[in-house]
Every structure is written in structure tokens, then in C-alpha cells.
């Protein structure tokens, strides 16, 4: 009998998140052939997402109105109701807002070690090494478990997603018994990100710094991001100056992103910012100052005024992406 | 209101990282209060100013951490507790276990911490602690208001803002935007020297036995490959953008 690896899958707007497919692949990389891999899906009205998930692996679905949106206590209760009978060897989450919040709760509950924000998995057998960044990417460590159960969160965009199997696996529905002793209740959710691509999962990130000069200065960046189906980020300078929300901040304080393309507009490139984005595949810097440190890490640099460059760039991408091949 | 802040001392974010003998070099490094924990300290002080009570800052770590705790005292915290732990191999399991053992003997209404630490970045310790103490929590908060035995918080969830009402005692982790931390004043620094500073050995914590050995272990450490400076494109802006789009599609194949 093998061990059981549980992947906690996530949806956004009813659709499966890419990071959940990456987590399924992570489970495959970490486990043996004879081990069992189950994806656990919590939420409400997720039939379609469950069907899609079953193309990759066996699914346990907990569908309940109380799980319609994430609440720390309720999700913890539902997840432990599913996990405790399984006695998992490992539980794998995406390193997302939900995963970051839920995984440590589960780790404490299981008295388990946890390795967070994993960017690569290597090794085999009992010597599986999990690579993760330190100092937001100024260094990397390999970490291994010295005990089980194990809890893992994986960073979006770093591990290849799983490929669908030729046949669908089973979906088992589990009931959820609501907890009667809730100590917290969500009063309101103000959605500022509806329809937007999450920064940490985006394939393209268009980021603005002090050079955008104002809140309105982000407008051309948003248009460029839209053309590329990417997300908008910012440097600390832009956030501190009040040009944008702190939730967009990329850097050692803030988010760490690893997109395919990172476009830094009007960002000088302080060491803290570089820590948060220097693992991006292709870095493009647009800055008026040819001496800006950002050019030292950029694959391509354009020396010029972002307000002139960004709209032209958006237009060029639009021409390319809208044109028939 | 008994307010506690769990605090970590980290490298200054401006430090470059180097490796010596398989470890992150600490020689000559400037240490600070983890920036997110600094928001937690500031919030604790603001809540105390409104509601009365006391602020105790607690840290687990080696002797050098006393400096960060003294800074928090100079900002206005009333007491500091250092749980001595010189083992650099400790993981979040160990740290949260030590903290839980300490808190089980304390009367607390509110525990504040940072959303994550800028060195390790795992973001586990505070949430683990809440679970070990079986108190509710909210992470990444950007606003906190306390009325009698309830807290109303705003939390940042991937850009959305959730408003949550939580019964105390509870634990919250601070996200950027919560407040603007104050600097220690000169009188604050002078006063800090006379404030209670308790140093605890692990053996002095109740319920801590040998079973706090870390559950994960570092097996390798490396620096990222240096990025080479790329190409500064030439020509008019129009020519440069055309070339850039061409390169991304035909050479890098990312578009």
C-alpha cells in the first residue's frame, strides 16, 4: 500500500486555477507510482470544475453553500473533515491567498512540517528536495522533510501543470457538517480583482514605478496588460506615493512574481524590487534613465519615456496578437 | 487589553546575500524588525492608546534578537520576552511550538504578527500559532477596529478586501497599508532600558519536551544565477518597440 497525497484544488470564478494543475504535477513529482493521489475540491456549485479536475486525478468534492467563499474557520473545518479519515502522507496547496492561510492551519492540525512557496521539486524515493526562495529570491534553499505527514505549498507559474489523462477519474462527494462554534464571520467582500488575473499567476506582468507619476499614470500600463492578458504590478515607490494599492506591490516586501514576461515601466530597480521579480523569464525595462539599475537585469531595455513607449508597445502587440497568423 | 506581538528579527531588506561555509553570511549585516512585524508593533501601540492595557513583544531566537525587541520597547511596547533559541536549523514547527507553549501560560486578548517574514518568507508561524492555541485568526489585515470583545478587520485577499468580524481572543497578521510605523523617540529609547525584559530558556516553558526537533531540514543553499545585462534597443521608439515585439515572438517565443 502506498501513501496518499492530497492536492487541495482551488477555483476562481467557478473555474479551476492553473496552480491547482501545477500542484497535481507536484504531487506526481513527489510521490511514487504506487502512491495514491487525490484532489480535494471545496466550494459551492463546482460540478464543472470537479469534472475538469477528474480528467487529471481522482477527486473528492465538498460542495456546500457555506464554502462559497473562503473563510479560514469554515474551510479548516471542512478540510479536516475530509482529511482526517484519509490520514494523508502529504497535503499540497498552491501558495495563493487561500493556500497560504489554510496550509499552516492544516500543518498545525496534523502536527506536520511544512515547506512553503516551492518553486521546484527534485530527487526521488525518500530524498525529495523542495527548492524554495529565501529573501524573496536573493537566495534559494533545498529543503527536505524529516518526518511525515508533510504539508507543501507551491508557487504559481514554476512547476509545469499536469497533463490530462485519457480517461476521467472518479468524483466522490463528501458532505460537510457545518461547525456550530464559529468565532468569525465575513461581513463584506469588496471585489477589486473581479475578472482580473492574479499577479502571482499571471504570465505577463506590467509593472509601474515612481515614473508613472500618478494614479492616472497606470492607465497605459493597464491597457498594455490587457492586450497581453496580463496583470499590473507596482514597485514600492509607486505604492508609497499613493499611485496604487499595496496589494499590487512586487518586491521583498510584497509579492514575488515569476511570469514569462515582466515589463518594468519607470522602475529604477532597487534591490528589494529586483528580489521580487528577477526570476521572471524575460525582463523588459522601460526607463528614461539609461543608468537605472533595472537595465542590469533586463533582457531588453528601451531608454525612453514610458508614456511615449507603452502605448506604442501596446499597439504593436495588438497588431501582432489580433493579426491572423 | 492584553496585547502581544510576535516579532522576528530579519536582515535589512537592502542587504545583499552571500553564502559562507554553506550558510548565509551574517557578518556585518544590519538587522531590523521584520517590516511586517513592525506594522504589528505599531498597531498594538495604537490599540493600546485607544483601549488601554499593555503591549508585550515576544520573539524566539538568538541573543542578537534582543536588539529588535529593545527597538519595539523604544517604540512604546511595555515588556519584552525573548525565548532563547540558538538553533539556526529550527523550522516553523519548532518556533510555533515554542510560542504556543509560552502563550498557554499567558492571559491574552490579542496577538499580532507580520503577514510573513522577508527572509524566510514562509508565512507559517503566526497561523500555526493561532491553530495551536485554538483561537480564530485573520491574515494580511489592512484595518483593525476593536469594540468590546470583538474585532472588525479588513483583510487583503489577492486584491479583494474582506471585512471580517472576529471574537477575541484572536490573532491577526499585518499587511502593508495597515499603518505607518513610528520611529523610536529619544525619550523612548531611554525609557526602554528600564522596561521589563524577560529572557526564557526553552526548558522554562511548560509542556515543552524534547519533541520540538524541526520536521524539515535544509539540504542545500545557493545563490540565483546572475542575470546578464541584456540588450538596450536602438533607434526611434517606434523602431525599438517593433524590434522588441519581433524578438519576443521569434527568438524568445513567449508571445
TrEMBL record, chain A:
GO molecular function (one): electron transfer activity
Q: Cofactor note from UniProt?
A: Binds 1 FAD per dimer.
**Required co-factors:** FAD
Which sites bind FAD? 210, 235-236, 249-253, 266-273, 287
Q: Which InterPro entries match?
A: DHS-like_NAD/FAD-binding_dom, ETF_a/b_N, ETF_a/FixB, ETF_alpha_N, ETF_asu_C, ETF_asu_C_CS, Rossmann-like_a/b/a_fold
Q: Which Pfam families match?
A: ETF, ETF_alpha
**Which biological process annotations from GO are given for this protein?**
fatty acid beta-oxidation using acyl-CoA dehydrogenase
Put simply, this protein is called: Electron transfer flavoprotein subunit alpha/FixB family protein
Automatic annotation (TrEMBL), chain B:
The UniProt record lists the keyword Cell membrane = no
Q: Which GO terms describe its molecular function?
A: electron transfer activity
Q: Which residues form the Electron transfer flavoprotein alpha/beta-subunit N-terminal domain?
A: 21-209
Listed GO CC annotations: cytosol
Q: Pfam families this protein is in?
A: ETF
Q: How does it assemble?
A: Heterodimer of an alpha and a beta subunit.
Family as reported in the entry's similarity comment? Belongs to the ETF beta-subunit/FixA family.
In Swiss-Prot or TrEMBL terms, this protein is called Electron transfer flavoprotein subunit beta
- In its UniProt entry, the species of origin is given as Paenibacillus lutimineralis
Amino acid at each position: 500500500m502506498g501513501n496518499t497525497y492530497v492536492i487541495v484544488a482551488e477555483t476562481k470564478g467557478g473555474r479551476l486555477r492553473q496552480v491547482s494543475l501545477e500542484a497535481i504535477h507536484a504531487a506526481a513529482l513527489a510521490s511514487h507510482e504506487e502512491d495514491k493521489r487525490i484532489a480535494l475540491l471545496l466550494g459551492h456549485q463546482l460540478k464543472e470544475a470537479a469534472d475538469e479536475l477528474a480528467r487529471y486525478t481522482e477527486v473528492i468534492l465538498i460542495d456546500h453553500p457555506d464554502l462559497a467563499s473562503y473563510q479560514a474557520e469554515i474551510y479548516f473545518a471542512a478540510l479536516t473533515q475530509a482529511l482526517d479519515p484519509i490520514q494523508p502522507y502529504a497535503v499540497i496547496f498552491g501558495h495563493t491567498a487561500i493556500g497560504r492561510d489554510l496550509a499552516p492551519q492544516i500543518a498545525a492540525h496534523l502536527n506536520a512540517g511544512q515547506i512553503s512557496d516551492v518553486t521546484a521539486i527534485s530527487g526521488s524515493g525518500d530524498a525529495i528536495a523542495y527548492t524554495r526562495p529565501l529573501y524573496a529570491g536573493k537566495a534559494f534553499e533545498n529543503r527536505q522533510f524529516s518526518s511525515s505527514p508533510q504539508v507543501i505549498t507551491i508557487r504559481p507559474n514554476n512547476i509545469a501543470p499536469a497533463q490530462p489523462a485519457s480517461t476521467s477519474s472518479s468524483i466522490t462527494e463528501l458532505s460537510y457538517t457545518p461547525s456550530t462554534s464559529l468565532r468569525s464571520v465575513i461581513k463584506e467582500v469588496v471585489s477589486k480583482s473581479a475578472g482580473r488575473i492574479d499577479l502571482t499567476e499571471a504570465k505577463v506582468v506590467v509593472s509601474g514605478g515612481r515614473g508613472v507619476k500618478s494614479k492616472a499614470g497606470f492607465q497605459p500600463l493597464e491597457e498594455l496588460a490587457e492586450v497581453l492578458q496580463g496583470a499590473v504590478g507596482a514597485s514600492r515607490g509607486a505604492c508609497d506615493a499613493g499611485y496604487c494599492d499595496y496589494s499590487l506591490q512586487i518586491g521583498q516586501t510584497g509579492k514575488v512574481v515569476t511570469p514569462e514576461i515582466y515589463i518594468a515601466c519607470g522602475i529604477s530597480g532597487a534591490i528589494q524590487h529586483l528580489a521580487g521579480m528577477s526570476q521572471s523569464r524575460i525582463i523588459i525595462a522601460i526607463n528614461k534613465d539609461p543608468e537605472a539599475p533595472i537595465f542590469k537585469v533586463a533582457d531588453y531595455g528601451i531608454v525612453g519615456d514610458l508614456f511615449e513607449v507603452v502605448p506604442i508597445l501596446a499597439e504593436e502587440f495588438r497588431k501582432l496578437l489580433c493579426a491572423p497568423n | 487589553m492584553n496585547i502581544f506581538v510576535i516579532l522576528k528579527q530579519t536582515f535589512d531588506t537592502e542587504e545583499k546575500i552571500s553564502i559562507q561555509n554553506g550558510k548565509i553570511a551574517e557578518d556585518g549585516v544590519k538587522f531590523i524588525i521584520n517590516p511586517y512585524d513592525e506594522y504589528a508593533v505599531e498597531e498594538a501601540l495604537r490599540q493600546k492608546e485607544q483601549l488601554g492595557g499593555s503591549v508585550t513583544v515576544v520573539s524566539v531566537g538568538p541573543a542578537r534578537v534582543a536588539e529588535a525587541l529593545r527597538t519595539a520597547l523604544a517604540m512604546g511596547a511595555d515588556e519584552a520576552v525573548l525565548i532563547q533559541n540558538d538553533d539556526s536549523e529550527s523550522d516553523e514547527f519548532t518556533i510555533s511550538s515554542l510560542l504556543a507553549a509560552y502563550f498557554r501560560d499567558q492571559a491574552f486578548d490579542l496577538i499580532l504578527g507580520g503577514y510573513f517574514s522577508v527572509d524566510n518568507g514562509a508565512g507559517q508561524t503566526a497561523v500555526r500559532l493561532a491553530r495551536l492555541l485554538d483561537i480564530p485568526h485573520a491574515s494580511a489585515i489592512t484595518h483593525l477596529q476593536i469594540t468590546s470583545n470583538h474585532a472588525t478587520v479588513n483583510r487583503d485577499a489577492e486584491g479583494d478586501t474582506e471585512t471580517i468580524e472576529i471574537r477575541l481572543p484572536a490573532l491577526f497578521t499585518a499587511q502593508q497599508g495597515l499603518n505607518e510605523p513610528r520611529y523610536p523617540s529619544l525619550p523612548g529609547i531611554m525609557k526602554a532600558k528600564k522596561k521589563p525584559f524577560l529572557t526564557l530558556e526553552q526548558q522554562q516553558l511548560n509542556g515543552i519536551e524534547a519533541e520540538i526537533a524541526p520536521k524539515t531540514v535544509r539540504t542545500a543553499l545557493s545563490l540565483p544565477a546572475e542575470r546578464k545585462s541584456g540588450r538596450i534597443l536602438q533607434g526611434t521608439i517606434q523602431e525599438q518597440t517593433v524590434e522588441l515585439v519581433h524578438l519576443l515572438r521569434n527568438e524568445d517565443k513567449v508571445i
